[in-house]
Design brief:
CAT-like_dom_sf, alpha+beta, Chloramphenicol Acetyltransferase, globular
């Protein structure tokens, strides 16, 4: 099996290095009763032998393809001193800032916080360069079930420099036909899209400071969620898109016509797939004003987008073979284009999770969620990308969780405002929910 990174994975890695912004995924479990610490330690040992036991090793060629290798060490399990449950949210935020690096390690981190009043919380954070959301759900379920990943990678540094240089030159030669096709695809994309990129934003003015984008997670009873989607003529995916569109409208992330553009990841992971990010994406444009009363237009837009994806190749992916050749300044510029700019928001639905993913100690947790993180992101990066709004959703044990990440340059950005926007959007759809997991509040 080849250990050469897929081009999507290499592009994601290069994008992080160019923007100096790390993209992470965090899974959070809450137990209202005591946990089996030995069970968590076994879960941790299985993670060490699982799909995430790998790192990225760069090619000695500036334009070469990077490779997966086995790490020389493994992350330790962290069990911290007990704290009141009221401090759980703050601890989860601490965990979200755990330094991770898909190249130098560690690539992931598992930690446990016992509650002084009984129960415990668990956090797992990993680099998105190592795995995507669907893949992470599989990794967690495999570790909880004791399933070992059969894939093995060469040891880090096992190739001598001249051997690596020779092999990577040969790989580049094999990639030349794809690079040629990518040049043609880039020219075609540029002709059809006014130069291939959106207009450059105005020059950033002010100190380039680290920002902490507001995040919030809410939970809705799955029966209520499905009933509401059905009553509005939609599906669970359409309802999530409708909520995302209303949040985009409140944040001002809409076009001149008031319509919202949503990017929806599409899972392409197959059995035995070793890619970190086995996804493509489809874009839809919808009217946020109509969503709370009728989801049928969103459902139709989703169907048409998926049909177009099956019938027509996405030219943006056809340009990927050129990514190893691009200078950092161009990668930084393209990051904003890839995210869609200031009028595109993300809506990602993981669907029904494997129940085993909710059993890090061998028993069912009372609550589970997953969210996307961008620790280290700065005000300049947010300016150049046009800000971000993303929703990540899934369902476990009869509840739908939705985690929201939002930041809009030039606007007040606070968790209080985000929670108010979420509350208003849920009210628009006649949904009731709890927000947060440490001390949840009803909205």
């Amino acid at each position: 099996m080849s250990n050469i990174l897929d081009l999507v994975d290499q592009t994601a890695f290069l994008g992080e290095r160019a923007t100096k912004t790390t993209n992470l995924l965090q899974a959070v479990w809450v137990y209202n009763h005591g946990i089996d610490t030995d069970g968590v330690r076994e879960f941790h040992r299985h993670l060490q032998r699982g799909r995430l036991s790998r790192r990225i090793e760069r090619s000695p060629l500036p334009f070469g393809r990077h490779r997966w290798v086995s790490p020389t060490d493994q992350p330790d399990l962290e069990v911290v001193e007990a704290r009141p449950r009221e401090q759980f949210d703050a601890w989860v935020e601490e965990q979200s800032n755990t330094p991770l690096d898909p190249e130098h390690g560690p690539g992931w981190h598992l930690a446990v916080l016992p509650f002084t009043g009984g129960g415990a919380g668990i956090s797992f954070v990993t680099s998105h360069c190592l795995i995507d959301g669907v893949g992470l759900c599989e990794v967690l379920a495999d570790a909880a079930s004791g399933r070992r990943d059969p894939t093995s990678w060469p040891a880090a540094g096992s190739r001598r420099w001249w051997q690596a240089l020779r092999e990577d030159v040969r790989q580049t030669m094999r990639d030349l036909p794809a690079m040629g096709r990518a040049v043609i695809a880039t020219a075609r994309f540029a002709r059809h899209n006014g130069g291939g990129t959106s207009p450059a934003p105005a020059k950033f003015v002010g100190p380039d400071e680290r920002v902490s984008p507001p995040m919030a997670t809410f939970f809705v009873d799955a029966d209520q969620w499905d009933a509401r989607a059905d009553a509005l003529g939609g599906t669970s995916n359409a309802l999530l898109a409708g909520v995302a569109a209303r949040l985009a409208q409140r944040a001002g992330r809409v076009g001149a016509d008031g319509w919202a553009t949503l990017a929806l990841p599409v899972n392409e992971r197959t059995p035995g797939d070793t890619r970190a990010n086995a996804i493509t994406a489809v874009d839809i444009t919808i009217d946020p004003a109509a969503a709370p009363t009728d989801l049928r237009p969103i459902r139709t837009a989703l169907k048409r987008a998926l049909i177009r994806r099956n019938d027509t190749a996405d030219q943006r992916f056809a340009m990927l073979p050129l990514s190893p050749l691009l200078p950092r300044w161009l990668v930084r510029r393209m990051a904003g284009v890839a995210l869609g700019g200031a009028t595109t928001s993300g809506s990602s639905n993981l669907g029904e999770l494997d129940p085993a993913a909710n059993r890090p100690d061998g028993t069912d947790a009372d609550s589970f969620t997953m969210r996307t993180l961008y620790p280290g992101v700065t005000s300049a990066t947010m300016h150049h990308t046009g800000g971000l709004l993303g929703l990540l959703s899934g369902r476990v044990r009869g509840r739908v969780f939705v985690s929201v990440f939002a930041y809009q340059p030039g606007r007040p950005n606070s968790e209080e405002q985000l929670r108010q926007d979420i509350s208003n959007a849920l009210r628009d759809f006649s949904l009731t929910a709890t927000v947060g997991w440490g001390c949840p509040t009803r909205v």
